[in-house]
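Tokens for Multidrug-efflux transporter. Go.
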Amino acid sequence: MTATKKNKLTEGKILSSLISLALPIIFANILQSAYQLIDTFWLGRLGADAVAAVSLSFPLLFLVLSLGAGLTLAGTVLVARYKGAENQRQVDFSSSQSVFFIFLTSIVLAIISYFAAAPLMELIGAGPDIIDDSIQYFKVSSLGFVFLFLFFIFQSLMRGIGNVMLPVYIVLFTVILNAVLDPLFIYGYGFVPGYGVAGAAVASVATQAMASTIGLIILFRGKHGIKISLSSMYFNMENLKRTFNIGFPASIEQSTRALGMTFMMVIVTSFGSDIVAAYGIGARMLSFIVIPALGLGIATTSLVGQNIGALKIKRAEKAAILSAKVSFFGFTGLGLLLFLVAEPLTTFFIPEDPEVIQDGTLFIKIMSLSFGFLGLQQVMNGTFNGSGFTKASMFISIMSLWLVRFPLAYLLSYTFEMGPEGIWWSFPISNIIAAIGAFTYFKTGYWKKRVIRDRSFLTLQD
């Protein structure tokens, strides 16, 4: 019965398939970002040091999470292919292997991160007032990597088969739960002791444990399109190699992005606290664009991956082109809107500092006109990922951040003496170059040739 059931992603209208995939993914991404906002809200009641301790830990935590999130992308790609090929046996087997691989990886990263907490906090310069809290927060958060990565892979597998709403319900439930547990573990109540800053991490780990448990129960029961089994969780070197070859470049891509933003702060901080504040406001605005752009990119990965699995290469290409058009024109429109409201937005964040308002407004205006290119790049990355060619996405991201944006920010701000404005201009220039490079590479059709050559994913045996 399931074999004759129509697959909406490989048949019917491409636009409706794209929208039905993208909107829930975008919403789930927004919900997941709420974790940090909730933590910041409650920790702010403890004082500035509490917020600083978490802020110091976040870039390093984000770096580790980027590695894990990249590896889980392989689950989306492989499962999407098998789903498109209507090979349910391999959907289940590949999913079991992905869970097994991510579980082992998460344990290794959790152990390393836990014992590296103190030297890492000292390395990045944690002051005596916050070092103890930052270490404890990082250690507790590290223990949660196992749960967080398991939910990541659950989410990725569901996206691969096109079941994007189920993870949204779970994320919504855990975010609400986190909002309740945060004050409980931070301040304590009744028999529950207050853990201070570490309490925010305890609350997050508890909700992540619940989310991953729900996800695993769903996968083991097999009533939502995927059924994993313990008997399929072993070292199948061919499958693990395939997972690593797809997932590792994606991990490098995401961690490169995290490192790039961290290194950009080195240049920004050299111009003083006002410019740091202006940059912070602009970065917040950028995140509001990046979240839906990433969501559209992930949706494109699933859509392209399933059609490649069904050997509908032309439909996969049409899906990529349609997604590129939606992304480019949609985010260009959002950019124009942000350009018009840049000053009131900046004033909302810092209402009584004219200099910061001026710099922040200029940053948003300069950056906003290239948002269409940013969206186009993410969709092209999603297309390459869906075809299993994650190395292309990795090279584009490395080029954009390390060969263009970071050097350009330094040259324009110092060598050409443009000051902070030089940093602002490095964003649109790098976005445009990366998007043009990605789209040009897409048009060469090399990604299609690789797919036509590599049919082994349809016949891989367990």
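The radius of gyration is 22 Å.
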